[in-house]
Amino acid sequence: MIPGGSVSETHSCLVRGRGAGIHSAFVFAHFGGPRSQQQQNQFFVLHLQKTWVGAKQHELQVNSMQLLYYQAPMSSGMLLVAVPFFEPLFGEGGLFSPWSVSALLMVLLSGVIAFMVNLSIYWIIGNTSPVTYNMFGHFKFCITLFGGYVLFKDPLSFNQGLGMLCTLFGILAYTHFKLSEQEGIKSKLVQRP
C-alpha cells in the first residue's frame, strides 16, 4: 500500500502501473497542487517525459511501437538498479520471498497494462501533439477519480466533482477548437484550384 494512501488508491496504482501519475491525479483533484517536494518532482518528470517523447518521436522519425521498443530496455535497466534501494529484497513482502499466484497475476497484469499505457502515450503524441496527450491525461484522471467513486466507494467531494466538470468542459472546448481548426484547413485546401 502507498504510505498514507487508501486501499483503492493503492489498487489503482498497481493496476495502472503508473503510480506517480495516478497519485498526482488524486493530489490535483483536491485543488491543492503537489503537497510535497517529491510530488512536485513526480509532476515535473511526468510532464518532461511527455515533451521528450514527442520530440524524440519526431526527431527519429519512428512510430510508437519502435520508440517503445528502444525505450523499454533502458527503463527496465534503470528500474533494475533502483528497485533494491526502495523495495525489500527478503522477508515478508520482499522481492525474493514466496509470492501467491494472485500476486503474480496482478504483477503480470500491471506490467501488461503499463505496456499498453506507454504504447498509447507514444501513439497519441506521435499522431497528435503533446498538448492533445495532456488533454487525454486529464480525461484519464477524471475517469480514475470517477472509477474510484463507483468501484471502490471512495468519497467524492464537491471540489473534486467541480474539478472534474471544469476539466471535462475544458476538454470539450479544446476538442471543439481543434476540430474547427482542422475543418478550416480542409476548407482552404478544397477552395484552392
Automatic annotation (TrEMBL):
Membrane-traversing stretches: 67-86, 98-124, 131-152, 158-177
UniProt keywords, alphabetically: Membrane, Transmembrane, Transmembrane helix
Record flagged with keyword Membrane: yes
CC terms in the record's Gene Ontology section: membrane
InterPro entries documented for this protein: EmrE-like (IPR037185), TPT_transporter (IPR050186)
Membrane association type: Multi-pass membrane protein
Cellular compartments annotated: Membrane
Top-rank lineage group of the source organism: Eukaryota
Protein name per Swiss-Prot or TrEMBL: Solute carrier family 35 member E3
Native source organism of the sequence: Molossus molossus
